[in-house]
Amino acid sequence: MTAALLTRKLIAPLAFACTLFAASLAVSAPANAANDAAAEAFVTDVSTRAIAIISDKGADTAARQVAFGKLLDETADWPKIAAFALGQYLRLPTPEQKTEYLGLVRDFVVKVYVTRLADYHNEKLVITSSMPKGDKQAIVESQINFTNGREPVKVTWWLIKDASGSYKIFDLNVVGIWLAQEQRSSFTSVISNNKEDFNALLTHLKAQINSAGN
Amino acid sequence: MNLVARSLRQSVKIACLGLAVSLAACATRPDPANPAAVQAYEETNDPIEPVNRYFFELNRFFDIILIKPVATWYDGVVPDAGRQGIRNFLDNFRSTVVIANDSLQGNWDRAGSAASRFGINSTIGVLGLFDPATGMGYPQHREDFGQTLATYGVPEGPYIFLPVLGPSPPRDLTGFAVDSFFDPLTYIYWGGPYTVPVTRFVINGIDVRSRNLGTLDQIERTSVDYYATVRSLYRQSRASEIANGETDHENLPDIDNLNFDTNEPQAVAP
Predict the structure, then answer these.
(1) A91 interfaces chain B, CB cutoff of 8 Å
(2) What's the DSSP call for residue B65?
(3) CA distance A182 to B159
(4) What is the CATH number for A127?
(5) Rg over CA atoms, chain B
(6) Is A212's CB within 8 Å of B228's CB?
(7) N or C: which end of chain A has fewer CB within 10 A?
(8) What local confidence, expressed as pLDDT, does residue A130 receive?
(9) What CA–CA distance (Å, rounded) separates B266 from B36?
(10) Are B133 and B121 contacting, i.e. CB atoms less than 8 angstroms apart?
(11) How many CB atoms lie within 10 A of CB B132?
(12) Domain containing A81: what range?
């Protein structure tokens, strides 16, 4: 075997490996840049405050609901969430019904999730990755690690920018369940099973607000 | 005894009547001129909703009078370690189903992991009563033939809620039936007696129910429509299981043009 042939034999795979390496760099560079620092900071801030509220031993349920409601008023995109939960019935309510509905959705979500989140007191949420979705949205992946050895719970945050450009919560995915989608399926079901009477949904929401979280 | 028999016959008659009435009443079809309503109807994909709701309530009734009390008793009386042992044993027994479906999905890593789990837990784990495999880097995962069909592109089909079995859309019901062929108990007790498989089914049901006592109560208490919530939870958790826990960010609904205040006619996604 001549030296030239040997060199060629060695160089060809080497060159191929270099090309692969360069290609992988080219692919991974934008992936790194895709991290959305603003979205991550937002999620860290919201989750820290939410866990602090739920873990506050000095507060009773009512006080927790007030604090949690305040936090969500600041950080959740209520109109978008409320609109999404109506599905195909978004144009059904009158302006007055819409206003009442928006307030009820807020109270309902606050009460329900103060109850449902009670399990996560004193735990820590760790961000695992983040990426922008289009120009106005971002996805942040995180998990709640438990101190008692329970399996971590995966939480995905779907954020959307408001008019001023800061992030708001649109939806959360907890162990594979999108919460706004869960609500939409039951809201639209109530309306369609009551001959498309929007007041039926308002009545149901009021009843749930009165019974949930007590 | 006679009285019991008579009242039993009576309740069967009532149940049949209820079934007949609900069968006659299928879910109302949407106005074909309204594309948003048609799309929503197809998304819900629950054409026999009244029947499903009937069975849902029937299951709930049996849950309240029988399953929940037994599960509560099981949860309270059997110590944690005992319940965990039973859970581990049942899960270990299901390994063949998991391995078969991992393989059918071409997921060799996961099939290998499930096989290692089976080997470790059946030996070091004392016939599967303990789960040392998780600590050795082989965490538990679930697979069934319904998920395998989904990875082959088979759609879930319309929502069907069956007595005892619960949510069973055609794809997952088929999966349930096919999985029994990956289960050694099927062959051991082929042609009966079915005491052992039935006992396993019952204990598994009680154990699963006892693990969800708090969660299900909470969901029921905080749902505007419990039936619709369970339907959504079932579908979403199946989708998540099929994706092996990965969230798909590309196929999320379009929310950019969602405007709460607008009253323009609704646009339909293409």
Answers:
(1) yes
(2) I
(3) 15
(4) 3.10.450.710
(5) 22
(6) no
(7) N
(8) 92
(9) 7
(10) yes
(11) 15
(12) 3-205
Cβ of B17: how many Cβ atoms within 10 Å? 10
Whether A211 maps to a domain, the answer reads no
- Return the residue in A172, A186, A198, A201 with the most chain B beta carbons within 10 A, the one to mutate for interface testing: A186
Q: Show the tokens assigned to B33.
A: 């001129």
Of B260, B238, B38, the C-alpha closest to B154 is: B238
Contact A88 B241 (CB under 8 A): no
Mean of the per-residue pLDDT values for chain B?
A: 86
pLDDT, one tens digit per residue, over B156-185 is: 999 999 998 999 999 999 999 999 999 988
* Chain A CB within 8 Å of residue B240 CB: yes
Preferred mutation among A99, A181, A190, A192 to probe B, highest tally of B CBs within 10 A: A192
What is the count of structural domains for chain A? 1
At A16-62, the pLDDT tens digits run 554 555 544 444 444 444 688 899 999 999 999 998 998 887 888 88
Is the Cβ pair B221, A185 closer than 8 Å? no
Both tokens assigned to B99: 């391995």
Q: Which of A163-167, B134-138, B180-184, B248-252 has the lowest mean pLDDT?
A: B248-252
